[in-house]
Amino acid sequence: MTREPFSPLKFSRNAGLIVLLIVGGVFAVRDWIIPNIWPKNFGVVVEGALYRSGELTPTATRKVINERGIRTIVDFGAHELGSYEETRAQAIADAMGVRRVRLALFGDAQGDPNRYTEALTIMTDPGAQPVLVHCAAGAQRTGCAVALYRQIVEGVSLEDAYDEANTYRLDPSDNPHLRRMLDAWSDDVERAYREGGTITYDGPTRD
Fold this sequence. Notes:
Layout: H1 8-37, E1 43-46, E2 50-53, H2 58-68, E3 72-75, H3 84-96, E4 99-102, H4 114-123, E5 131-134, H5 141-153, H6 158-166, H7 177-195
């Protein structure tokens, strides 16, 4: 049998196709398969009562609800109001019989501190638990809410609560606003949480 002569052009083309297939496979695993198996930036705050994560795929949402018995989801604004993703997230919660509360804050954890007070009230309500709190990355807004929970509810020092946030992919050099938010508002959030009422705030808010 006569062997076909080596063609550099054909070899390069085939090698390029193989590389594209490999790269495509890596992205598919990273973006579609892994997030459905392992919920993004998931963590246990209090076993049986409070959990945290980044935004979840529909499959991961169902997985967490079923495995952890989630009754309430607090979403700090993973998606824009009115977007397809926001509508889908609400539809999944409705279909699963889970209460979903949207308390939108900016991605760097800033915004109306009253929303953190509302979140704490839900997070500590036995009738709402188990509660899942999440944002987009599960690092900034979620990290701030959990730090406030640790400090105000559990009595953990602010330093230790903030250090925990750093273990969930918070980069203080990239986002210094979370710590500033804690320093500026934690006392007011605690007062409003314990005594009721609202915090006077005239800064920007997110719908």
